[in-house]
Amino acid sequence: MLDDSLRARIDTSKPHSARFWNYFVGGKDNYEVDREIGDQIKSIFPGLVDVAVTSRRFLGRAVRHLAEEQGVRQFLDIGTGLPTADNTHEVAQRVAPDARIVYVDNDPIVLAHANALLTSTPEGATAYLDADLYDPEAVLEAAAGTLDLSRPVGLMILNTLGHVAEYERARELVRRLMAGLPAGSHLVISDSTATSEGMIAASEAYNASGAVPYYVRTVGEIAGFFDGLELVRPGVVRVTEWRPEPSSDLGVAVDAYCGVGRKQ
Question: Which residues contact 79 (CB under 8 A, 6 or more apart)?
Fold first, then answer.
């Protein structure tokens, strides 16, 4: 249920990225204003639906890799968005029931759905922080209430850094977050990229809608977030090409790139 303080923070007169993305992946937690811009952008660039769906599938493969092959048992997911199927905690705890996950978002709609996120296996833990990417130290301090930051953490920042207008500031925020995590931690990033005229046009239409702007970047800029880290094979690639499964969307040339890097 929404309490009055959360309700006051929700603006249904403008699209919102979490609700917009929820509409694209088939969710029901969105408003008419989100569906209107969603339909407009579909008409401009239908491929953005593929970006939303395949980026979600990348999340599952990345979390499974960290939990199964790297033994990571702690995850910090920043820019959580609205819960759908196979959230980070569900994927991780399916592999390792004792996994501990902290979700971070500052959107009131996401907070209102926190109960859906706060499910956990008895052996593990799941927590939600109403916190802001722009204050990395505060995020880490609060996350330490659930996670042991002396042990490796999987830092997930998916489809979120585009909200940071200045690229160097976005890099600095990532560096500050990783600085607070120990060796053996991993950084997982995916984001839409300016790799087609359609995606650039879709981004411009979305930014003109009154929503908080989202800036698509070059592939080189996505790679720059991993400076100082050891890239996990196959490196920075399309989300469909990162350790694809046999039944994957490997042939879909989506405008979204990703990577996983390990802190030495």
Answer: 104, 105, 133, 157, 158, 159, 160, 161, 163
